[in-house]
Amino acid sequence: MKPPKRLQSLIEEGLIDSVERQLMSGKEATVYVVRHGDETLCAKVYKEATERSFRQAVDYTENRKVKNTRTARAMAKGSRFGRQAQEATWRSAEVDALYRLAAAGVRVPRPHNFCDGVLLMELVVGDDGNAAPRLNDLLFTPEQARAHHETLLKEVVRMLCAGVVHGDLSEFNILLGEHGPVIIDLPQAVDAAGNNHASRMLMRDVENLRGFFGRFAPELLQTDFGGEIWDLYERGALHPETSLSGRFEREAGAVDLEGVMLEIVDARAEEAARQQRLQAG
Ligand SMILES: Nc1ncnc2c1ncn2[C@@H]1O[C@H](COP(=O)(O)OP(=O)(O)OP(=O)(O)O)[C@@H](O)[C@H]1O
Ligand SMILES: [Mg+2]
Predict the structure, then answer these.
(1) Model pTM?
(2) Given this model, what pLDDT does residue 275 score?
(3) Is the C-beta atom of 110 inside 6 A of ligand 1?
(4) What angle do CA 222, 223, 226 make, to 5 degrees?
(5) What is the pLDDT of residue 58?
(6) How many H helices and E strands in the chain?
(7) Cα distance from N-terminal residue to C-terminal residue, the chain
């Protein structure tokens, strides 16, 4: 096909030779199948912020590391330079996460290059050699569902051990490659240690896996792997090889310190108001 404008500079720089076809146009990017030498690759072209649906909630940007303080200040102020910097950080977040996860042994598309807002990566292929289907496009036997669920929980644990929470993990962002599931679509991945929403996001990722595979193997719906994984992680006891039970007892006697403090503040305010009423009367 005639290469779209956004891919022309990559052709000029010799990063790709030709564009075969458009694979998908999603909410945040358009994905193409491209050729480079005798390799077939995948090019993800990010949309401009204005054409993108708003997924970049505060969750995702919180604590994203920006080394330069001038850039950090500009981003906080929302100036034009700041918005550009934020946009660049958002786009490069996916390639950063891919390198980090590939190094940790998580099955993600192998990154090749990142240039002008285009991510070049391995094209994940299915059994037939064509672009792999999403889990959502497939049906599974209970045995297959249990096996994939287990594999993917291990991947979630491996990611967390590498300090990353996907943040949008679901049957739409996992492909079934020829050797098993491959996790994709990571621009919103967050730093597990530095983000206050990381635990909520991890729980949601794990619940999405449970909900999807639970359609084929209903006994999975009784499990609580998310709680177990986060608890182990917080206690520094999570390792890629940790065996999980799927059971997690939320401690009955656990102290909700923040809740207690809020109660005290409320009680004090109430008492102050009562005293004021007494004095006024
Ligand atoms: N490396 C890859 N190999 C094969 N197919 C891919 C690859 N990356 C993306 N795709 C295909 O392109 C689709 C969109 O990719 P991705 O989810 O990364 O972008 P998106 O804009 O967030 O899309 P969506 O809004 O659908 O989530 C995927 O569902 C998948 O079918
Ligand atoms: Mg997606």
Answers:
(1) 0.82
(2) 85
(3) no
(4) 140
(5) 46
(6) 8, 9
(7) 84
